[in-house]
Each structure stands twice: as structure tokens, then as C-alpha cells.
Amino acid sequence: xxxxxxxxxxxxxxxxxxxxxxxxxxxxKAASEVVLTFADATVGKPVSTYTAGDVTFSLAxxxxxxxxxxxxxxxxxxKTDRKGLLNAMAHEQAIPVKADIKGGxxxxxxxxxxxxxxxAWLEAHDKDGKLLDxxxxxxxxxxxxxxxDPIPSFELSxxxxxxxxxxxxxxxxxxxxxxxxxxxxxxx
Length: 188
What we know:
The protein is 9% helix and 40% strand. By secondary structure, the chain is mostly beta strands. The chain folds into two domains: 1-28; 31-186, Jelly Rolls.
């Protein structure tokens, strides 16, 4: 009886992983997608912009509460080897991170994680700033079931013709919303 149950659990997990349902399962890459993982980024050094391939990340606007220059920074995904980009302004988390996509895109997917109590949203805009599509979590970001677990990741996706840039945000001041992978399909 125990052996049968163990086999069923293993098969269930294997099937879930193969169709992308397992928690933190690596996403499948579509043939035309560009994938940015930030593997070579320096952790803990705030910068005004960061460029990976044809995508440049920065804050969407200047800070309002200080004269400091707006910055983004890389932070490690605890208990994993991944690292991700976030708004480095601890007291101005309402400023979205902007990702300009040279040549545009027709879809963008972000793999994100965040601190306790953070919300998450993603918007796609055209070159004139018009909102094309929006995605958001219905509640706050997923949390660990056990302190020994890595913080769970989740995905938000937007689709539209001629996406020039995306914006993402949702963390409260003192919190963080971190993107550790960006996948996009370039415009044709």
C-alpha cells in the first residue's frame, strides 16, 4: 500500500512538472522568445540603468521624495542561485521599473517574486505611452509554506502588437518586487 502511494505521488509530481504545474518549475521557451536571466549581473550595486540584449531597465520616473537619482539593483533569490532586478529606492516603491524593448515586442512574460505583503502588476505600453495590456495578481505575492523553502516565483504576462516598453511594480515601501527572468517575443 505504501509503495503504491509513493509511486502515485512521484508520478503526479512528474506529470505536473512536465506540463508546468509544479511550483518553481522552469518555464518552457517558445522558439521565437528571447530569454533574459541576469546570470552575469552584479548583486547589490545600484545603477541608474541596466541593459541586457535589446532591453534597458530603469525607473519609470525620478524619485519624488528625494533628490537622489533613481536606481535599480540586483538582489539574490534566497535559497536559489537566481538573482533578479528591483526598484532600489526603498522608500519610493510606487515608482515602477521600466523595461524599454528596442525593436518592440508582441508578448512579454516576467518571472517574479516578492516580499511579504507585496502586490504585483505588469503593463505593456506603445511608443506613445498608450496602455496596451495589463496583468496583476488578484492578491499578494505567494509566500513560502516553510522557512526552509525558497520564496515562490510566479509569472505575469502581457500581449499586444507593438509593445515598446513594460512597467512593473506593486511592492510597499520597504518591500520588494523582483524580476529574475524576462521572456519576450520580438515584434516582426
